[in-house]
Design a protein that fits this description.
The chain is α/β, with parallel strands linked by helices and 371 residues long. It has one domain: 4-Layer Sandwich (Purple Acid Phosphatase, chain A, domain 2). The protein contains 12 helices and 17 strands. The chain has helices spanning 2-23, 105-114, 144-160, 172-177, 186-195, 208-213, 234-239, 243-252, 258-264, 266-271, 295-305, 335-340, and strands spanning 29-36, 39-45, 51-56, 63-65, 74-76, 87-88, 94-98, 130-133, 164-167, 219-222, 225-228, 309-312, 321-323, 328-330, 346-350, 353-357, 363-365. It has a 6-stranded mixed sheet. A hairpin with a 4-residue loop joins β13 and β14 (328-330). The termini are far apart. The relative contact order is 0.12. Mean pLDDT is 92; it is low at 4-23.
């Protein structure tokens, strides 16, 4: 009996090791586009887990992207970009809002396609309307790079159609850029190790995606709505920083280590800290440690910016949820679970009406009494 137990234990251990190795392996990834003095370095991982590291004189006309399983193929062309205006007025006819895709391309595609923001070939189909993504593409999933490329492509297609794609910084973009990979899936650490780099080096200021992400704003306003990844609290109100200054300072320190950011100035220490706009949870969490906002402070923030609502992500909830008499809307949910259970995954704003939406294009209006 003892011998049988040992045999079974060894067999179980071998299976567990195989499962761990399967999880902690490379899958389709990239492309990473890095500009050097010698040309353009393009790094990809193919469907067999082989790293392709090429030095080319120029970027190819098109780059082909798929998810980590080789699905959802699309082509990307490198294009010019710049920082968007932080304020959009008047509000477009329709604004689609999602948050925290966290490396799950399948969830992004199903949500956008199900609501006619993109077509079945992953091209923009939302006309002159507006897509807002409230941060956190990095971490937890296997397709962060591919999601960045999809939104990079859609941003250009939207502009050509008279629409707009707005990407806002979350807390996970600066975490990865500072070298904090505590939430990253193992494949990214393996890739960096195999290349003899830190993973942050693949998104530095000499990379195409890093340069693009550095143009993202932290706060934007569209009509009567203010968008920010985590939230704005009493400390933010007291700092009284102009939004363009917040956006510029966050980008200026994006590629620094967190200690370096804090050492530069008290302002950056605050903006990147727990009560700054990419971490503050006090709009939606009542626990004292998160310094929940007082209603009069929220009203002063709304009055300062001339908005009715603040729309956030960051704090994950079971469903799209309103707080503080509907003045705050949190759109961050567990995208994988909610996709599977056909629950809410974003909001659609049409004029002064706000709808909760899932993957099937069905709309459920937020109660007008909440506003």
């Amino acid at each position: 009996m003892k011998k049988l137990f040992v045999t079974l234990l060894l067999a179980f251990s071998a299976l567990a090791l195989q499962a761990a190795e399967a999880r902690d392996s490379l899958s389709v990834d990239g492309p990473y586009v890095l500009y050097t003095q010698d040309g353009v370095r393009i790094i990809t991982v193919d469907n067999e887990g082989t790293i392709m590291d090429e030095m080319l004189p120029a970027v190819p006309e098109t780059l082909t992207v798929t998810d980590h399983l080789g699905r959802y193929p699309f082509d990307v062309r490198i294009h010019p970009f710049c920082r968007q205006s932080w304020k959009v007025d008047p509000q477009p006819e329709r604004v689609f809002v999602m948050s925290d895709p966290h490396g799950r391309l399948d969830c992004v595609v199903s949500l956008l396609e199900g609501n006619n923001v993109i077509d079945s070939d992953l091209h923009w189909s939302f006309g002159q309307n507006h897509l807002v993504v409230i941060g956190d593409v990095f971490d937890r999933g296997d397709d962060a790079v591919q999601i960045y490329w999809l939104f990079y492509k859609l941003q250009q297609e939207a502009e050509e159609a008279g629409g707009r794609v707005t990407m806002l910084l979350g807390n996970h973009e600066p975490m990865e850029f500072s070298g904090d990979m505590r939430y990253a899936t193992p494949k990214y650490k393996i890739l960096a190790r195999e290349l003899g780099l830190e993973y942050r080096d693949l998104f530095g200021p000499c990379s195409e995606l890093g340069r693009w992400i550095a143009t993202w704003n932290t706060i934007c306003q569209i009509g009567p709505d203010l968008f920010v990844h985590a939230g704005l609290g009493g400390d933010f109100y007291r700092w009284n920083l102009p939004v363009p200054e917040v956006n510029a300072q966050m980008s200026r320190a994006l590629f620094l280590r967190n200690k370096e950011r804090k050492a530069i100035s008290d302002t950056l220490n605050f903006l990147y800290g727990s009560n700054g706009p990419i971490w503050y949870r006090g709009l939606v969490v009542k626990s004292k440690k998160y310094r929940p906002i007082q209603r009069d402070t929220l009203d002063m923030i709304r009055e300062r910016y001339g908005v009715d609502h603040i729309i956030v992500g960051h704090t994950m909830l079971k469903d799209v949820t309103t707080f503080l008499d509907g003045k705050v809307i949190d759109v961050n949910v567990d995208n994988r679970v909610n996709q599977r259970k056909h629950r809410s995954r974003g909001i659609l704003i049409e004029g002064d009406r706000y709808f909760v939406v899932g993957d099937r294009g069905k709309k459920r209006e937020l109660r007008q009494g909440a506003f």
